[in-house]
């Protein structure tokens, strides 16, 4: 997913503020799900949702206002109820940051943990 660092996303040091990386991860994750199954709403219409259980970020180099970044997303094979996704932030060939997220599958109504539906696990498998 391409993105351009906006002025509002920078801190007083002139660098992209660290918390914005989580927003960018969410955006990239949403787009990857859209590419994979047609969109987040496909899951919710099937009675499935997911919640974030863990997030990890490693910052390698700063990003600055107006930098053009690309966020790559890769999914690991899903567990019974969890899904780990990995992210790389690049400015050209330079690695800016790496991240991983763990999402847990839940029922869209009760938010109780549940296994991933077979059709979704197959798409990621």
Order of neighbouring strands in the sheet with most strands: 1-3-4-5-2
Principal-axis shape equals: elongated
Spans of 5+ residues with little confidence (pLDDT < 50)? none
Report the end-to-end length measured between terminal Cα atoms.
Answer: 22 Å
Number of helix segments? 3
Q: What descriptive keywords fit this protein?
A:
125 residues, alpha+beta, 38% strand, elongated
Describe the structure.
By secondary structure, the chain is α+β, with helices and mostly antiparallel strands. Strand 3 and strand 4 form a beta hairpin. The model has no long low-confidence stretch (mean pLDDT 96).
Blueprint of the fold:
Blueprint (H helix, E strand, L loop, with lengths): L1 E3 L15 H18 L2 H6 L2 E12 L8 E8 L6 E10 L2 E14 L10 H7 L1
Antiparallel strand pairs: 1-3, 2-5, 3-4, 4-5
Structure at a glance:
With 125 residues, the chain is an alpha+beta fold. 25% of the residues lie in helices and 38% in strands. A five-stranded antiparallel β-sheet has the order 1-3-4-5-2.
